[in-house]
């Protein structure tokens, strides 16, 4: 394995971990907004995600 491929793999792992953390934060925000009585359409608008994604989180 070359130094370049090791670096690429490290970048993938770190990027994946950051993406997972970001997704968890968005889900927490969606759940918090829902608990406050915010409509799914408004949650989607505020968080910049699709209505389908909001519904998936709230299931």
Please outline what is shown here:
The chain is mostly helical. The protein has a domain at 21-59. It is built from three helices and no strands.
Explained architecture:
The chain has 59 residues and is mainly alpha-helical. The chain has 3 helices and no strands. The protein has helices spanning 3-35, 40-47, 51-58. The mean pLDDT is 90.
What key phrases describe this protein's structure?
59 residues; mainly alpha; 83% helix; rod-shaped
Find the count of extended strands (DSSP E, 2+ residues). Answer: 0
How widely separated are the two ends? 43 Å
Low-confidence stretches: none
The amount of beta strand, in percent, is under 5%
Output the number of helix runs: 3
Could you say which structural class the secondary elements and strand pairing correspond to?
A: mainly alpha
SSE string = HHH
The major sheet is characterized as: none
Q: What is the residue-mean pLDDT, rounded to a whole number?
A: 90
Could you estimate the helical fraction of the residues in percent? over 70%
Radius of gyration: 16 Å
Question: Looking at the structure, what is the overall shape?
Answer: rod-shaped
């Amino acid at each position: 394995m070359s130094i370049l491929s090791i670096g690429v793999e490290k970048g993938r792992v770190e990027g994946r971990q950051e993406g997972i953390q970001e997704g968890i934060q968005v889900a927490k925000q969606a759940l918090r907004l829902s608990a406050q009585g915010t409509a799914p359409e408004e949650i989607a608008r505020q968080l910049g995600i699709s209505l389908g994604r909001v519904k998936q989180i709230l299931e």
